[in-house]
Structure prediction request, 154 residues.
Amino acid sequence: MDKKDVQIIKHLVANARINASDISKDIGLSTSAVIERIRKLEKSGIISGYTAILDPRKVNLDVTAIITVVIEHPRYNDRFIKAVMENMYITECHYMAGDHDFYLKVVTQNTNTLQDILNDIKRIEGVAKTKTSIVLNSPKNEIAIVPDANIRKI
Prediction:
């Protein structure tokens, strides 16, 4: 990955719908060269997908919570992960080192639906303990980090 790839990635992170021709004008490559570089970034897995980012509050999802979970034994991890994957309100799941085994981000309508989700989580076999924190505000919520040109070579 070189500086031109990083410039392309910066444009796509800022606006995934930007035209290759607009990128080409800004970075000084031909449109076909930009398209080819994007294809290589996708094929290598550096760009893993594109998505629309919704404002949760505009779609009546007014409560965001962080739930940490302790699992009794690692043999329950697969069952836990399967249940998490099936719950549309759990937007992130991270397997952690430290005092807690999993870190979940939940986005839901209100505290009543959060209570239902929390009870569903507590019913999963192997869940020993949970701790829930309500998010009041998210001053920074980056979706992607644009790498330095020297981090990884294609």
Summary: The first helix runs from residue 3 to 14. The beta strands are 63-71, 90-95, 102-108, 127-135. Residues 6 and 39 are 14 Å apart (CA to CA). The longest strand covers residues 63-71.
